[in-house]
Design brief:
three-stranded parallel β-sheet; 17 strands; alpha/beta; nine-stranded mixed β-sheet; 35% helix; 458 residues
């Protein structure tokens, strides 16, 4: 965080984009590159940095300049730049001119591509790759076709067959690098096989950003990972939370259709979000899942909805709400975290990887994770008000996970004899889900939705 401080003060008279911000970016990259990862104590051999956006965008130029300087200082044996460019198809012909122009602009900014990844609907044949190589000053072997595939998990295999690893090995002098994609390809094929199934598992996602589904991309991917593990075809049903709240005279069908969609699904997921719009709908869908024994997974705000639901409809705390949405509520069962500033704007959330301790033997959480101590990523400002913990537990909720201080509630569930799967967490488990290692809560939801045993006995 200290390395990034100049970025927050770049408007100060003593701070300039060059060299202060660009030097800070380089320092941050070097720091990240030297940090051990994946539990291996050694320094990584390669650090991958993604520079998003389009070349020429004003907001990305400090980062482009920082990387230009790094490329010059490190030299080609320690800096490998892959430029991604679109190769469109017009009238059945692959057009290379857009790639030529984009590489020209990248070079004008001072970055020299080591390889060019050509995004295209179809395979970029050798003639087109040779033409790109000729006009962009890279070897033909370093022009890689990144064409559309059945699912994105087939992409690494295509990159390997296209020769990208060999090009990187030569330039970076990486010796004895072996790449076995057998297990990865099995995951890709498993996902492809699920698309051929005639039946599917329907998971309802209730949120406020359903019109822009990319907002929930990590959640979608985590559900896919769980579906692959269960060899199930996933069908996501999107429901806008606001439409669950009341039956408007102007459009009664919207309310009816929304609830019909919820009732048609095998499981319900309420992801994180901000703002009060649709929160009452999320509370109602939690109530529906709890009372009708429908598998439910709540994430961050989805956990808050579950807590408010239980407070109002099970514990009898009339008017219970989150302090975030109703400052004058009779019962604030969710409150602003005491260590967070109420006046400073920006950078005030509890972020990053934190330890969660599972405190109840044989709980669903312990069975899902197979451990009493877990590490998940967080992103929130509000938390369960522990003053209501005993009342909520008497109403049936079980707070089985907390932080290292035992003062912050992290996991809540219903007893399995009362519900097959009602599980909500303060953190964001979707961020650490992987195709070959699906997130435990998502896997539990998928198993419950399939009518299977949620988690093995310890």
């Amino acid at each position: 965080a200290s390395h990034m401080a100049p970025l927050h003060s770049a408007t100060n008279a003593h701070e300039q984009v060059v060299p202060h911000v660009t030097d800070t970016i380089q320092t941050w990259i070097r720091d990240i590159a030297e940090k051990p990862t994946n539990g291996v104590p050694a320094t990584p051999d390669v650090c991958v940095i993604e520079l998003g956006g389009t070349i020429g965008d004003m907001e990305s130029m400090p980062f482009v300049e920082a990387l230009r300087q790094m490329q010059m200082v490190l030299g080609p044996q320690r800096f490998f730049h892959i430029h991604v460019s679109l190769v469109p198809i017009m009238s059945g012909e692959l057009k290379t001119k857009p790639t030529q122009h984009s590489v020209r602009d990248v070079r004008a900014a001072g970055l020299h591509p080591s390889a060019i990844a050509c995004r295209c609907k179809e395979y970029v044949h050798e003639a087109a790759r040779s033409k790109i190589a000729q006009f962009c000053q890279v070897p033909t072997s370093a022009v890689i076709s990144v064409h559309d595939v059945a699912n994105m998990y087939f992409v690494p295999g295509n990159l390997l067959r296209g020769g990208l690893l060999q090009v990187m090995q030569r330039q970076l002098q990486l010796h004895d690098v072996q790449c076995d994609l057998t297990s990865w390809n099995a995951i890709a094929q498993a996902l492809e096989d699920t698309t051929k199934l005639t039946t599917s598992v329907r998971i309802c996602i209730v949120g406020k950003y359903t019109g822009l589904q990319d907002s929930y991309l990590s959640v979608i991917r985590a559900l896919q990972h769980a579906a692959i593990a269960q060899k199930q075809r996933l069908e996501i049903v999107w429901v806008e939370a606001e439409k669950l709240e009341r039956r408007e005279e102007a459009d009664p069908a919207a309310y009816d259709n929304a609830w019909e969609s919820v009732r048609s699904c095998h499981g319900i997921l309420v992801p994180g979000g901000f703002g009060d719009r649709g929160f009452e709908g999320k509370i109602l869908v939690s109530k529906y899942a709890r009372e009708n024994r429908v598998p439910y997974l709540g994430i961050c705000l989805g956990m808050h909805a579950a807590v408010v639901d239980a407070a109002r409809h099970a514990a009898g705390l009339e008017g219970a709400n989150s302090e975030e949405f109703d400052k004058s509520a009779a019962h604030h069962v969710l409150v602003y975290m005491p260590e967070i500033s109420r006046t400073h704007m920006g950078g005030t959330m509890r972020l990053g990887l934190h330890t969660t301790r599972i405190v109840e033997d044989g709980s669903l959480a312990e069975r899902l994770y197979g451990s009493r101590e877990i590490h998940e990523r967080h992103r929130h400002r509000y938390e369960v008000n522990t003053q209501y913990k005993e009342q909520l537990e008497r109403a049936g909720l079980r707070f089985v996970g907390c932080d290292s201080t035992h003062k912050r509630m992290e996991i809540v569930e219903l007893a399995q004899e009362a519900h097959p799967f009602f599980f909500a967490v303060q953190y964001h488990p979707e961020f650490l889900s992987r195709p070959n290692r699906p997130s435990a809560p998502f896997l539990g939801l998928m198993r419950a939705a399939c009518g299977e045993d949620v988690a093995p006995s310890l």
